[in-house]
Amino acid sequence: MSDDFLPRAAAPATAERPAPSWAKKPPPKSKARPTGKVTARHYAAPRDPHEHARKIAENVLDAWYQSFGGSSIDVPLGTVAGLSLLRNVPGLADWVLSLQPEQLPQLLKEIYLGHWIKRPDLINRAIRLHDWAWNSNPDKQQLRAVHAVTRAAINTGLMDLTGHDDPWRRSEADVLSPLLTGLRHKSDKKWRGEYHTPACVTDLLANMTVDKDFAKPGMSFREPAVGSGTMFRSVAQRLRDLGLNPHDFHWHGNDIDSLSAGCAAVNAIIWDLGPRCLIGCADSLAPEDDYVKTRAEAKEAFEQRDRYMETASTITAHRRAIALLDELTGRTQEGRAA
Questions:
Q1: Contact 183, 228 (CB under 8 A)
Q2: Can you tell me whether residue 21 is helix, strand or coil?
Q3: How many C-beta atoms surround the C-beta of residue 244 within 10 A?
Q4: Contacts (Cβ under 8 Å, ≥6 apart) of 213
Q5: 237-281: per-residue pLDDT in tens?
Q6: Beta bridge partners of 75
Q7: Around Cβ 313, how many Cβ atoms within 10 Å?
Q8: Rounded-to-integer distance, Cα 99 and Cα 152, Å
Q9: What pLDDT shows up at residue 14?
Q10: d(CA 17, CA 20)
Q11: For the chain, how long is the longest CA-to-CA vector?
Q12: Can you tell me whether residue 197 is helix, strand or coil?
């Protein structure tokens, strides 16, 4: 299966946070790479998971701009989003840290492709977060910045926050929200009206409105300005506290900004909102939409996934048949020679 089966991002260029003035200097010459074993640092995480998420965002921002990463905010955002999809098995963090800069795009592609098998609709929605990894001729300086971002995120305990098997533990904080808002330029946020609701507010709203008398399996939760999905996170945690499963509910989130919608799609996987979660990227004020387009796009994503999987299975079967035929032909020839 070729690497270019996912569509390339076609979103129009948007105003992005410019690099600091000191980042306009020529990038430093690369230093010799360490040859010893690289291990994750022990990070004393704050007790408050939301503060932990903010600290991760701060360190990633410093790493990106100090490494002269540039103004393509989808790259550091997509790197952290991809790493957030990993499970924190023993030794994995150390293995990731041992990778060289040029190896990281392949890692991120494999992470996203692994989740595309299960939820092609959400991974397609997040295409702006990982499309850059398919660049056949990546910028070496950008790869060094991705490497710095990876080290900063892991050494600040990203996988301790998002790598749990228990979805309740993975849903204690939104890692992508403070990073996205930190990467956005102030004027860009003002123009977009992009101000994410603080977690303390969404938690309060969820606790006030969602109880066992209100929440019935099969009902829908809709968020027309979903951002990175923080309100969904709070509601899902409230449902779990009540002994309910988010999989039994419908989640319809939408945002006009493709990066925000992409973050919400990745978070829907991290927080395990379930198979009835749809994330759209459209104008919520358009009366003709009402998630019709989002449903159609999700349906097409699953059909496309099935077509590719069927093709891959056919190719594998043909290769096995040819290998078996070669083996039988070889045995026949050996028998005749004997």
A1: no
A2: helix
A3: 17
A4: none
A5: 999 999 999 999 999 999 999 999 999 999 999 999 999 999 999
A6: none
A7: 10
A8: 14
A9: 42
A10: 9
A11: 84
A12: coil
In which residue are the tokens 């991974």 written? 123
Structure tokens at 160: 């301790």
Asked if residues 85 and 123 have their Cβ atoms less than 8 Å apart, the reply is no
Q: How far apart are the C-alpha atoms of 124 and 307, rounded to whole Å?
A: 15
Rounded to the nearest angstrom, the gap between the alpha carbon of residue 297 and the centroid of all alpha carbons in its chain is 19
End-to-end CA distance of the chain: 41
DSSP string, 162-188: H--SSHHHHTS--SHHHHHHHHS-HHH
CB-based contact 157:80 (threshold 8 Å): no
Record the tokens describing residue 248, joined without a space: 């039994």
Cα 325 versus chain centre, distance: 43
Contact 112, 123 (CB under 8 A): yes
Is residue 237 a contact partner of residue 171, using CB atoms and an 8 Å limit? Answer: yes
Which residues, 6 or more positions from 96, have their beta carbon under 8 angstroms from its beta carbon?
A: 83, 86, 107, 150, 154
Look up residue 252 and give its amino acid.
Answer: H
33-62 as b/e, with b when 16 or more CB fall inside 10 Å?
eeeeebebeebeeeeebbebbbbbbebbbe
Q: Where are the strands (E) in the chain, listed by range?
A: 220-223, 250-254, 277-280
Output b/e per residue, 86-122; b: 16+ Cβ within 10 A.
bebeeeebeebbeeebeebbebbbebbbebbeebbbb
- Residue found by looking up tokens 């991809």 in the block: 82
pLDDT band with cut points at 50, 70 and 90 for residue 290: low
**Spatial separation of the C-alpha atoms in residues 172 and 240, rounded to whole Å:** 12
| AA identity, residue 50 | H
- The burial class, CB within 10 Å (0-12 / 13-18 / 19+), for 185 is middle
Of 31, 107, 16, the closest CA to residue 70 belongs to 16
Q: Judge whether residue 298 has pLDDT over 50.
A: yes
pTM of this prediction exceeds 0.90: no
